[in-house]
Amino acid sequence: MKGSCSGAGMTKISIDFSPKGGPKDAVATWAKGYNGKVTLTFGDGNAWEMMAPTSDSELVPSMYTARPP
Fold it and tell me: What's the rounded mean pLDDT across residues 20-42?
């Protein structure tokens, strides 16, 4: 599958799932939660959590600007 990144911090990801029978232009956002886990969240609410950190996952911005109370 092919994809591309755009937006601030390259956090908007467009993926072509058509080779697998899915949509040609699925768009997702990746972000790091309070727990430090990186997720890729699609417009329909489906979210994929990264199983293991990579060198790139350290660059993913937090989805929160402040820690929870």
Answer: 88
Task: Decide if 6 is inside a domain.
Answer: yes
What range defines the domain where residue 46 resides? 2-50
Number of domains observed in the structure of the chain: 1
* Cβ contacts of 16 within 8 Å, gap of 6 or more: 1, 2, 3, 24, 25, 26
58: three-class secondary structure by DSSP: helix
Structure tokens at 33: 């939660």
Q: What is the pTM of this model?
A: 0.69
What integer pLDDT is reported at residue 69 of this predicted model?
47
What does the chain come to in residues? 69
Percent of the chain with pLDDT over 70: 91
